[in-house]
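Morning!

This is the sequence you dropped in the shared folder:
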Amino acid sequence: MKNRLLYFKSMKKITSILILIFILNSCAESVTEKIMRKSENNPVGKVLHLKDADIYYEVYGKGKPLFLLHGNGGSIDAFTKEIPELSKHFMVIAMDTRAQGKSTDTSTEPLSYRKFADDVKALSDYLHLKKINIFGWSDGGNTAIEFAIKYPKNLRKFITSGANVFPLGVGKEEVENMKKDLAQMVAENKPKNDIRLLQLMIDEPKISKEQLNKIKSKALIIAGDHDIILRSHTEYIAKEIPKATMKIYKNATHSIPIEHSEELNKDIEDFLK
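The structure's back. Tokens below.
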């Protein structure tokens, strides 16, 4: 994570968010220990072995299954403020996306949100869950939308925070900055997966209006009033998904799960009733 902060110097807004995630990760061990003491279902980290990846996950609580999907370059630690509360009401499945956190990736093709959605499906099948709910933050929200498109029969409801359905959802300037950062990372021979994760944000997602129109699940589309995702883009997503509602959090950036965890937890609980 420290290295990722160095790579994205020119992306001031995104960098500030990565700094927040880094701070959260630095104290994650002590927070996780508190969760282990308080939760009825003590978390036990497990690994799902796939053909080209090992997916690390933790399960908390009982009830309707709720997957938590973190953002680009993050991990389960992003949800230390959500897991203790949400596990009182749901069976929470928190997973590290492939090539991130404690999950590995040995594939050679470019990373994609569709592949991430396949991993969610693989884990839900492994846990014998026929229908799930998803909360996805940032890139995790993109994965949630891809899951809704590809696996409609396996999704009950989903919530996204700071998602986008095409790269320009963050604005042309930010995309150009990412391209410059990518060129620098390649020139400096930075770690392969860090390069692939940045390339992912430049190339994807590529979700069409027609695909959004066909989503059958109910959705809650969230963003901050100071989000890196353009307001018009969030409005577009909410408008084109037939059963979607939108909420813009006040005095909020892209880091709603960190900055507004209490409000977010309540919104998730109410929406998934």
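Headline: Residues 1-41 have pLDDT under 50 and may be disordered.

More detail when I'm at my desk.
O.
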